[in-house]
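Example 9 (inverse folding). The structure is encoded as follows.
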């Protein structure tokens, strides 16, 4: 359930087709259907043999179908009208009608686990915070991005972000998704704007995301450690900060055990800011928030 299957309608012909269209648009009960992106080049036919005779086979329509419920599902028969090109001056051509046969599909259920996002496929996810220190009333952006191949358009439930002492606005959603014969690929990003309303150190709780891996046959959970936003009292930054931190130099720190906090990937001196004391702004020791979830 939720895993893509590719449905292709083919036309086998010994004549030259001029037009092909469905008599009625097919209905796929129990499936969520997506049209596969087509190129501007007309589909090329290929020579095949069937029943001892030679035919040209043309792909007409391709769709990705995602089962929405477990059990036996049926793709119904469809009827198409095919226009035939004239072969001679006396041949008027014409239109013939042909029908497909129904196809049965068995969709396996997905294990039901708390917190499961509904994602089915192979994914990677990252969480990043663009600023870890800001003045009261300024905003930081928390980005959560999922990329890979699978039913990306089903992902409509971002991680829950709750932060006492700050206002968290509903996320903006950005999608970069392509529907290809090999499946649905791309990325989906949720951007949360976080505005502290009190001074001090605010801790963003850890974020969780899980998806079902059809190849492994199990749900793969991912979790990111918590992160901190430091907001000094009105009138000045903490003594260890180099006010103000440029947003392009900001680093996020996660609340996990460690020997001391330091900006990810470079020293504080190279980043152009003063190093915070061990434990950040008076809290327990922190390690840099890399943004990528640890392996399951």
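The amino acid assigned to each position is listed next.
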């Amino acid at each position: 359930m939720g895993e893509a299957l590719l449905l292709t309608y083919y036309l086998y012909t010994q004549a030259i087709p001029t037009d092909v269209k469905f008599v009625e648009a097919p209905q796929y009960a129990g499936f969520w259907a997506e049209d596969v992106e087509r190129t501007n080049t007309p589909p090329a036919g290929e020579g095949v043999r069937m029943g001892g005779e030679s035919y040209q086979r043309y792909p007409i329509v391709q769709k990705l179908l995602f089962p929405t419920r477990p059990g036996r599902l049926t793709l119904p028969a469809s009827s198409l009208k095919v226009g035939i090109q004239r072969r001679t001056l006396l041949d008027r051509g014409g239109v013939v009608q042909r029908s497909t046969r129904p196809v049965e599909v068995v969709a396996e259920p997905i294990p039901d686990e708390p917190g499961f996002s509904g994602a089915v496929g192979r994914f990677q996810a990252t969480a990043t915070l663009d600023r870890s220190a800001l003045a009261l009333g300024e905003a930081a952006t928390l980005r959560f991005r999922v990329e890979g191949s699978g039913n990306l358009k089903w992902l409509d439930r971002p991680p829950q972000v709750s932060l006492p002492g700050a206002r968290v606005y509903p996320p903006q959603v950005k999608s970069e998704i392509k529907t290809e014969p090999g499946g649905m690929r791309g990325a989906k990003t949720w951007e949360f704007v976080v505005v502290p309303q009190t001074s001090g150190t605010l801790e963003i709780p850890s974020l969780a995301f899980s998806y079902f891996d059809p190849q492994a046959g199990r749900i793969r959970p991912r979790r990111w450690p918590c992160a901190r936003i430091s907001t000094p009292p009105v009138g000045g930054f903490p003594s260890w900060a180099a006010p103000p931190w440029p947003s392009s130099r900001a680093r996020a720190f996660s609340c996990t055990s460690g020997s001391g906090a330091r900006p990810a990937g470079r020293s504080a001196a190279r980043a152009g800011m003063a190093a915070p004391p061990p434990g950040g702004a008076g809290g327990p020791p922190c390690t840099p928030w890399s943004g990528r979830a640890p392996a399951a």
